[in-house]
Amino acid sequence: MANDEEFQEQIRQLGKLVAQLDDLPDSAAKSASGELVQLLMDVHGRGLERAMEIVFDAGDSAPVIIDKLGQDPIVGNLLLLYSLHPDELETRVNKAIERMRPRLRKLSCTIELEHLHESSVRVRLTTSGHSCGSSAGDIRSIVEDGMYEFAPDVTSLELAGLEETAPAGFVPLESLLGQRLVTVGIPTITEGAHDE
Fold first, then answer.
1. What's this model's pTM, rounded to 2 decimal places?
2. How would residue 167 be classed by pLDDT, with cut points 50, 70 and 90?
């Protein structure tokens, strides 16, 4: 049984191969390869669709089974690929946000869904002044990874309110001392010369 990392790598490899196929010059081989890929997608899609219909007909246990299929990282991604996932995009985006909240809270950051239109998402991030040295890059990584785990079909993710800032409490020494940093405590030659 393939693990999640292997599956994700296979999906990435598939994407690369399809992109390479698209980049080939037009030819009979390219056309036949494209038709083969499309036919395989159609056959697999129809098979998955039929499997979901069978599950729907399973009676009282159907909702539990469907939910498990949708939550499974491998099956769920396949269902997304074929537009068969049981959860709407908005539901999956909200699940992603809920899953991220405790982790972001530890970094003194809150997250709210600000806008969702088609497959574009904008979230609002708010950080307090006590972010324990966490960087905007760390927060960005948590949000992007968390969102794409639940909603890999999001095509645009905007993080409003996230800015690179200096760590809380840091004040550059130059701004406190100004030009005095160069002259304080350094004796000049003329000060010691007249004692002779």
1. 0.63
2. very low
- 58-89 core/surface letters (b: 16 or more CB in 10 A; e: else): eeeeeeeebeebbeeebbbbbbbbbebbbbeb
Report the C-alpha gap between 142 and 99 in whole angstroms. 11
Q: Report whether pLDDT(134) > 80.
A: no
First CA to last CA distance, the chain: 90
Contact between 165 and 136 (Cβ < 8 Å): yes
- Angle in degrees, CA 13, 19, 22, rounded to 5: 145
Amino acid letter, residue 179: Q
Does the pLDDT at position 94 exceed 90? yes
